[in-house]
Specification:
By secondary structure, the protein is α/β, with parallel strands linked by helices. The protein contains ten helices and 13 strands. The strands form four sheets. Strands 3-2-1-4-5-6-11 form a seven-stranded parallel beta sheet, with helices on both faces. Strands 7-10 form a two-stranded parallel ribbon. A two-stranded parallel sheet has the order 8-13. Helix 4 links the parallel strand 5 and strand 6. Helix 2 packs across helix 3, helix 3 packs parallel to helix 4 and helix 8 crosses helix 10. The longest helix is centred in the first third of the chain and has 22 residues. The radius of gyration is 19 Å and the shape is globular. The mean pLDDT is 93.
C-alpha cells in the first residue's frame, strides 16, 4: 500500500454485510493499518483489531469521540445506516447519525478523510440502455433513496466547509457472501441451505441491475482512502459498469442447487427499487480519479456466493 494509507481506519457499520467485507479486505491488503470496527452491540467484526459496540446516537457522542482519539484514527469509512422502510428509522440511522458523526469529527479531528457509502437509489431512474453517471439528476423514487440523498448532501456540505475531507462512493448493487435474508440474494441463499424447500418464491425478476461484487467494493473503498485528497467533495460511482438480468442472477445461483427446484414470482418486490426497471453505472470517474475498476466477473461472483452457502452444493 502507498504511504498515504491512514495508519488507523475506523469503520462504522462494521458488522453489516458491506462493512464486514471492507474490514476483512483492509486487514489483508494493508496489515500495517489498524482497523477499529464500530457497530451496534452484538455485531462485532472479528477481523478488526479493536471493536467498539455502540449506536451512532447523541447519547453515545463521548464514547465515539474517545474511540477516535484513543486509537488516533486517520481515516473513517461510514457504512452504518438503515435500509428499513420505516421513515423514523431511516432518518435516525442515516441522516441524523451521519450529522452527529460529522459534528463529532469536526470538533475532534477536523478534515479527517471521511468515506461515506452512498446508494444508486439516490439517482433518477433512466430508460434502457442509458448509463447512470454522477451527472444524472438526483431524483430518488423511494423514501430510502430520498433519505440517502439528504445524507449525501450533509457529507458534501461538511466537505465544502472544511469540517471533514468527505466524499461519497455511490454503490450500485453490491452482492456477495453473507447478505441478509431480506435481500434477494440472501433469500436465494437461504433457499439453497434448506433441503426441504422445492419452490422459491420471489418478486418479479424482470429488472436489470448493475450487480458489483462486494469484494470489488471493498477494494474501491481502500483505494479511495489512499487518494482521498483527489476526491474531496465529490460523488464517485462504484459498480460493475454492466447491467445484468436479475433473472439470470437467480437462475445462476439455483444452478448450484443439487435438487430440482421451481421459481414463482408471486411475492411483492422491493419497495426500495421495484419501480426501477433498468440501471447501469457509468464508472468512468472511478477509473479516472482512483484508477479503480472491477476485477471480478459476474459469473465468478455467482459461483463464489453459491459455493459459500452451506448445503448449497454437495
Amino acid at each position: 500500500m502507498t504511504k498515504s494509507m491512514p495508519r488507523c481506519v475506523l469503520v462504522t457499520g462494521a458488522g453489516g454485510f458491506i462493512g464486514r467485507h471492507i474490514v476483512e479486505y483492509l486487514r489483508r491488503a494493508s496489515p500495517e493499518t489498524q482497523v477499529v470496527a464500530l457497530d451496534r452491540t452484538g455485531r462485532e467484526n472479528r477481523a478488526a483489531d479493536y471493536c467498539v459496540s455502540c449506536e451512532l446516537t447523541q447519547e453515545n457522542q463521548s464514547q465515539i469521540t474517545e474511540s477516535i482519539l484513543r486509537h488516533d484514527v486517520g481515516g473513517l469509512v461510514h457504512c452504518a445506516g438503515s435500509t428499513n422502510l420505516d421513515q423514523e428509522s431511516l432518518v435516525r440511522d442515516n441522516l441524523l447519525a451521519t450529522t452527529m458523526l460529522i459534528e463529532r469529527i469536526s470538533r475532534t479531528k477536523p478534515r479527517l478523510p471521511f468515506c461515506h457509502v452512498g446508494s444508486s437509489a439516490e439517482y433518477k431512474a433512466l430508460d434502457k440502455p442509458q448509463k447512470t453517471s454522477e451527472d444524472t439528476p438526483e431524483e430518488p423514487v423511494s423514501e430510502y433513496g430520498r433519505v440517502k440523498l439528504q445524507t449525501t448532501q450533509v457529507v458534501l456540505k461538511a466537505a465544502s466547509n472544511g469540517e471533514v475531507c468527505g466524499y461519497v462512493l455511490r454503490l450500485f448493487n453490491p452482492i456477495g457472501t453473507g447478505m441478509p435474508e431480506t435481500n434477494l440474494v440472501g433469500c436465494v441463499c437461504k433457499f439453497l441451505r434448506d433441503d426441504q424447500e422445492a419452490c422459491l418464491r420471489v418478486g418479479s425478476l424482470n429488472s436489470y441491475r448493475d450487480y458489483v461484487d462486494v469484494r470489488d467494493v471493498a477494494r474501491a473503498v481502500v483505494v479511495s482512502l489512499q487518494q482521498a485528497e483527489r476526491i474531496i467533495g465529490q460523488v464517485v460511482n462504484i459498480g460493475s459498469g454492466v447491467a445484468q438480468s436479475t433473472r439470470n442472477l437467480v437462475n445462476g445461483l439455483l444452478g448450484f442447487c443439487p435438487r430440482p427446484v421451481s421459481v414463482e414470482e408471486t411475492n411483492p418486490g422491493s419497495l426500495r427499487s421495484e419501480v426501477v426497471y433498468w440501471q447501469e453505472a457509468d464508472i468512468s470517474r472511478a477509473q479516472q480519479l482512483l484508477g479503480w475498476q472491477p476485477k471480478i466477473m459476474f459469473e465468478q461472483t455467482i459461483e463464489h456466493i453459491a459455493l459459500n452457502c452451506p448445503k448449497g452444493r454437495q
